[in-house]
Amino acid sequence: MVRVRERRAADLAPLVEVLREQQPLTGYPQTGVELTEDFICRDHELVALVAELDGRVVGHVSVQEAARVHHDATGTTLAAWERGHGRPADELGVISALFVAGSVRGQGIGTLLLDTAAAWCRSRGLGPCLDIVPNRTRALAMYRARGWVTVAEVETWWMQPGSPLVHVMVLPT
């Protein structure tokens, strides 16, 4: 049975292995990113959750403060999230660092983590937000199936110039 709980310090080393193992399968994160604890532990985290299966950590997601996350130089991402929810940045939570082990793909664990993070946001009065590159078609389809909508497409600092635009998404109430 899968259990979702808050991340602990002891989870970081196994999570780095999960992140590295799934990257060739999913392309997340894009190449050139160091797959370390620093990628998993995000600045301005409000909560970080893991999925455990039979006592083994098999997935991760975090929620960050939207007002303190910098996705593009012009503030387009944050403005789109604010418009999408009709709320200021301090009332939004950004879902990030969502990944699952390749060995459990297709078992609903990513969906469980996404839904748990979104419910966590809502229980604290925060509008759930995220961004995703369009070539992550499987993840994008999951988000859309769960009710997420694209409110903008933007260039970001973390993508190569000329890359496809990133989908800026919200989960409407």
Characterise this structure.
By secondary structure, the protein is an alpha+beta fold. It has one domain: Gcn5-related N-acetyltransferase (GNAT) (Aminopeptidase, 3-Layer(aba) Sandwich). Helices cover 31% and strands 29% of the residues. It contains 5 helices and 7 strands; from the N terminus they run E-H-H-E-E-H-E-H-E-H-E-E. The chain has helices at 12-26, 37-40, 76-85, 109-123, 137-145, and strands at residues 2-6, 45-53, 56-65, 92-100, 127-132, 149-154, 166-170. A 7-stranded mixed β-sheet has the order 1-2-3-4-5-7-6, sandwiched between helices. Strand 2 and strand 3 (56-65) form a beta hairpin. It is globular and about 40 Å long.
Number of helices: 5
Order of helices and strands: EHHEEHEHEHEE
The number of domains is 1
**Radius of gyration over all CA atoms, rounded:** 15 Å
Spatial separation of the terminal alpha carbons: 29 Å
User: What is the percent of helical residues?
Assistant: 25-40%
CATH class: Alpha Beta
The CATH homologous superfamily corresponds to Gcn5-related N-acetyltransferase (GNAT)
Uncertain regions spanning at least 5 consecutive residues: none
Strand order of the largest sheet: 1-2-3-4-5-7-6
| Shape verdict | globular
Largest sheet: 7 strands, mixed
Per DSSP E runs of 2 or more residues, the count of β-strands stands at 7
Q: Architecture in CATH?
A: 3-Layer(aba) Sandwich
Q: Strand content of the residues, in percent?
A: 25-35%
Q: What is the fold named in CATH at topology level?
A: Aminopeptidase
Structural class: alpha+beta
